[in-house]
Amino acid sequence: MAPTVSVLTAVFNPTRADLDACIASVRHQTMGEWQHVLVDDASTEPHVAEVLAAAAAADERVVVIRRSEQGGIVAASTDALAAATGEFVALLDHDDVIEPTALADMVGALTVGDGADLAYSDHDILRADGMVATPALKPDFSPEQLRNHNYILHFVVARRSVVDDVGGFRPGFDGAQDHDLLLRISERTDRIVHVPDVLYHWRQAATSVAADPSAKTWAYDAGVRAVQEHCDRVGIDAEVTAGRLPGTYRVRRRLAETPTVSVIIPTRGGSRRVLGVDRCFVAEAVRSMVETSTYPDLEFVVVYDTATPQPVLDYLRAIAGDRLVLTEYTKPFNFSEKINVGVEASSGELLLLLNDDTELITPDAVETMAALLTDPTVGMVGPKLLFPDGTVQDGGHVYHEHVLAGLVGWHGTSPGPGQLRPLAVEREVSGVTAASAMLRRDVFDEIGGFDPILYINFNDVDVSLKIRATGRRIVWTPFASWYHFESQTREASAEPEEWAEIDRRWHDEINADPYYNPRFAPRRTDWLERPWHSGAPALEEADADQGFGSWLLDRLGGTISGSSNSAWWRAPMLALALFVTSWALAAEVGAGPDPLRRIGVTGGAVLIWTLLLALAFHRRRWVLASAVLLAAAPAVSGHLALAGWEAVAWIGTVLVATLIGPVSRARPPVAWALAGAVTLVDSGVWWLAADDRVGSGDGALAFVRDAPAAFGAGDGGWALASIGVWWAALVVLVAVWVTGRHASLAIAVAAALAVLTVVSWWIADQQGSSAADVGFVLLAGVLVAAAARFDHEAAGGPIAVTAASVALGVAWSTSLLEFAEGRWWAITAAVVALAGSIRVTIGLVGRSSAD
Q1: Does the N terminus or the C terminus of the chain have fewer Cβ atoms within 10 A?
Q2: Strands, E assignment, 204-315
């Protein structure tokens, strides 16, 4: 029998509908062992008593307590805790709702294995229009982040005995009572687990913090006191102040002493023009530290190649004086070995590893990082690094199916995406870049320094993970920052043997980052959810710092150029562009003398569909359904009149082909069901339509050869060319997927092709016709959507995947020219071919410049 969970809810004047929804969300739990304790804090609205009385009468597990006078949320929550009888207690606000499986999922996490004392889940915002938005997808327990910001917030379930041990809810902390309780529990136990599912919907009421973070400034004052008292209790000598953003806090640790910091800078004395200014990188790196840093005891250890120009060394001596240690390095370039040589030549208790292509921004950066290292549980600290244009170059490492720099491209003054504000707070990370990182000498010695086997890349990943393997934390801080002119001194490239080595050592760690979230899109570092998971837009419009028009242009531009910032957009966009065009061409064949009118009708539908699809992804997912209906309406009516029920199969196939790529990643069973259903429907349509189609030829071989031509035998110039391109593109796709470690995808595609071929050929044999057009549209749609999905992931040929996909779609479309008349078909096909060529060309150029 599962343990009982007592859900604690303090109630004061919620609307009837919101309170009903809150109570119903508990009543509808899949787990029956619960108690809902609702404490009415002397509400003045008469409906509150009515709703609570009705709930208690309907279910004996609902306990209602009415206070005679209003005492505030701490007093009401304390009364609720006193009445609780469960082994665990859960916190639920009076207007919020939880998912039906919330209690079962949380209890499961708390009782598995040796058990845990506290569990928290992800949550999102429940807007006034009833839609969910801005999911807060959280890391595993991050004590530094909790001091800076109550990132946990909702949904929290804790062991009752632990809550009692720490004293429950403390008077005087109204508004920050949950944060205060979490901090005190974290002092008592480290058995804290994270459930990475959105189980809680935080209502965006007009007076709530969810709607307006500045609505309850008094709560943030209480938060400052809660964090300050926590620091005092655990021995952190710090001053806590309100952060730049509501709900964030700055924990300014004090340095009791200022040990020598040795700044280790490997260099070859390179110079280059940056933003119109000639820079000698190592000279500028040291100069900026000497002139800007307020830290009193710095030692500069410059490990220079033999080829370093003598004037550079002379300048360093002049500017750093007796604080400079010059160490010559005579071997071929090896970054790891140069760091080790520099550390050996240094004398400081603290080591600041620094690339020569950096420039200090924050005067007290060294103090900030050194103060964090006074905590023995912290093994290394990394700062915020910015590109010369002020955008983020590194916000801490993210190991999420790859090794990535976090939040690249966000503006340096931005708090980052969503509710977690990852660029505004100090937080644990899995690793930091050696371009700028500080650690204690004893930690460096304990882990054996840098491994020379990793001579260019991933050496900082190895060091980071070795530090974490000792049980220490790595902290990233936004309050120390440098400019980093990345790849200005040496071309960035990863050698295959380096990647193989880091994967061999740390395969599990670089595929599961505890300080990221498994629901985030893979190989992305911008805290955005995998598409199609929660149904909520990952960002509100305000988070994007731009209006919808410019946002849409950016997305469409990225779709064409192959920018990684719009990778998951390419699946629906490419499939939409290619196959709605194909749809228009196919449905118009032999339809009459006025193709321009019908192309205009379909083109208008495509335009509406594309714009509304963009709007759906930008704000609300429900708009997607409206967009599809609105866009399909004129096309459905027009094509039903022209092509009968076969048009229904075209419409359904195009819709499924557009969506199946993203859906297959998030909900594989749903994708299989959709594909299977559409294939069955299409098979029936093929059978009904077969009598009206031109035969494909004798025998299975002829059918396989001619099937991509869709509308007949491949005995003409356009058709023969398109057949060749179609099959060549398919071979390229499968080959790239196999070499890119996506063999299962290749097998699935091959199996789908085999099934479609056999079914189509059997229908052709029975009905005397191939009727293969709809089936191959489905297959091609799946290929394009999947290829766009893998465009930024498949190792060994992402552009080849996209190029083959575009060629496949264009070839299918142009095959229709053999059976269509009129210059409009030639113009339309030329536009499709040109668009595909531009997309691939720009993608190739963009990818080569980015790599």
Answers
A1: N
A2: 238-242, 249-253, 261-267, 271-274, 277-280, 298-305
713-722: long-range contacts (C-beta < 8 A, 24 or more apart)?
Answer: 714/815, 716/818, 717/818, 718/814, 718/815, 718/817, 718/818, 719/815, 719/818, 721/811, 721/814, 722/811, 722/812, 722/814, 722/815
Please tell me what DSSP assigns to residue 391: B
For the segment 624-675, what is each residue's pLDDT rounded down to a tens digit? 333 333 333 333 333 333 444 444 554 555 455 445 444 544 455 665 666 5
To the nearest 5 percent, what fractions of the chain are helix, strand and coil? 50, 15, 35
Between CA 798 and CA 802 the distance in angstroms is: 7
Q: Indicate the angle between helix axes 622-643 and 646-666, nearest 10 degrees.
A: 150
Q: For residue 189, what are its two tokens?
A: 């136990």
Q: What are 546-580's pLDDT values in tens digits?
A: 344 444 444 444 333 333 333 333 334 444 444 44
> What is the spatial distance between Cα 461 and Cα 507, in angstroms, rounded to a whole number?
12
Per-residue DSSP letter, 711: S
Residue matched to tokens 């320094």:
449
Q: Measured between alpha carbons, how far is 402 from 78 in angstroms, rounded to an integer?
A: 46
- Closest Cα to residue 817, out of 701, 721, 729, 735? 721
Nearest to 231 by CA among 363, 91, 372: 372
Strand, coil or helix: what is 437? Answer: strand
Contact 654, 579 (CB under 8 A): yes
d(CA 231, CA 146): 12
Q: How many alpha carbons fall within 13 Å on the CB side of residue 836?
A: 29
DSSP state, 691? G
Task: Name the residue with tokens 């294939």.
Answer: 679
Q: For tokens 């429940």, what's the residue?
A: 126
Helix axes 567-588, 773-790, angle to 10 degrees: 160
pTM of the model: 0.67
Contact 138, 120 (CB under 8 A): yes
Q: Which of 106, 104, 111, 108 is nearest to 122 (CA)?
A: 106
pLDDT band for position 127 (cuts 50, 70, 90) = confident
DSSP 101-156: THHHHHHHHHHSTT--SEEEEEEEEE-TTS-EEEEE-PPSP-HHHHHHB----S-E
Say whether 370 sits in a helix, a strand or coil: helix
CB of 535 closer than 8 Å to CB of 132: yes
**352/420 Cα distance (integer angstroms):** 28
- Return the structure tokens found at 208: 């709530």
Cα angle value 326/332/336 (rounded, 5°): 70
* Mean pLDDT, the chain, whole residue set: 73
- Strand partners of residue 126: 132, 203
Residue at 40: amino acid letter: D
For 561, half-sphere exposure in the C-beta direction (CA atoms, 13 angstrom radius) is 16
Reported as type and span, the H/E element at residue 35 is: strand 34-40
Give the CA dihedral 540, 542, 543, 549, nearest 10 degrees: 90
Q: Which two tokens stand for residue 451?
A: 């491994």
Q: What are the tokens at 122?
A: 């992800």
SS3 at position 757:
helix
Nearest to 587 by CA among 658, 656, 641: 641
Distance CA 323, CA 263 (A): 10
| Beta carbons of 434 and 459 less than 8 angstroms apart | yes
* Most confident option among 334-343, 532-541, 738-747: 334-343
Cα separation, 576 vs 558, whole angstroms: 15
List CB contacts of 429: < 8 A, sequence separation 6 or more: 382, 396, 397, 398, 406, 474, 475, 476, 515
Furthest-apart CA atoms within the chain: distance in Å: 93
Q: Would you say how long the chain is, in residues?
A: 851
Beta strands in 671-806 (DSSP E): none
Instruction: Please enumerate in sequence order all residues whose Cβ is within 8 A of that of 526, keeping only pairs 6 or more positions apart, or say none.
Output: 407, 408, 409, 410, 417, 565
